[in-house]
């Protein structure tokens, strides 16, 4: 299973990557929203993990691109420090399937991702 991590913080990205590699996922990383969109245009992924605040294009723009431009139904999880706010509500309206708050428990992250993939 191929997972794209769109996360601008290198430590968070590495933590997610490390945990998902233990679950035998094939991991790809984009450190900004623009790069994530470029990768999504070229590759098919089974799941997208996206941060809300990233350089160039934010997570909301990435979610909107996946759902409206690419018309992809892959599961999307927002991983962010933002508490439940209008931004998080908007992420769900645009098509996010899950919200995971930073800092996160790696085992909870793994479990939520597996649940999302089992639904799709």
What would your notes on this structure say?
The chain has helices at 10-22, 33-42, 59-69, 86-94, 106-119, and strands at residues 2-6, 26-30, 47-50, 76-80, 98-101. With 120 residues, the protein is of the alpha/beta class. The protein has one domain (2-110): Response regulator (Rossmann fold), CATH 3.40.50.2300. A 5-stranded parallel beta sheet has the order 2-1-3-4-5, sandwiched between helices. α2 packs parallel to α3. The mean pLDDT is 92.
List keywords for this structure.
alpha/beta, 120 residues, Rossmann fold, 5-stranded parallel beta sheet
Order of helices and strands: EHEHEHEHEH
CATH class: Alpha Beta
CATH structural fold name = Rossmann fold
**Strand arrangement in the largest pleated sheet:** 2-1-3-4-5
Number of DSSP helices?
Answer: 5
Kindly estimate the percentage of residues that lie in beta strands according to DSSP.
15-25%
Name the CATH architecture.
Answer: 3-Layer(aba) Sandwich
* Mean pLDDT rating: 92
Number of domains: 1
Radius of gyration: 13 Å
Helix-and-strand structural type: alpha/beta
The total of beta strands comes to: 5
How would you sum up the major sheet? 5 strands, parallel
Shape type: globular
Task: Briefly say what this structure is.
This protein has five helices and five strands.
How would the blueprint of this fold be written?
Elements: E1 2-6, H1 10-22, E2 26-30, H2 33-42, E3 47-50, H3 59-69, E4 76-80, H4 86-94, E5 98-101, H5 106-119
Parallel strand pairs: 1-2, 1-3, 3-4, 4-5
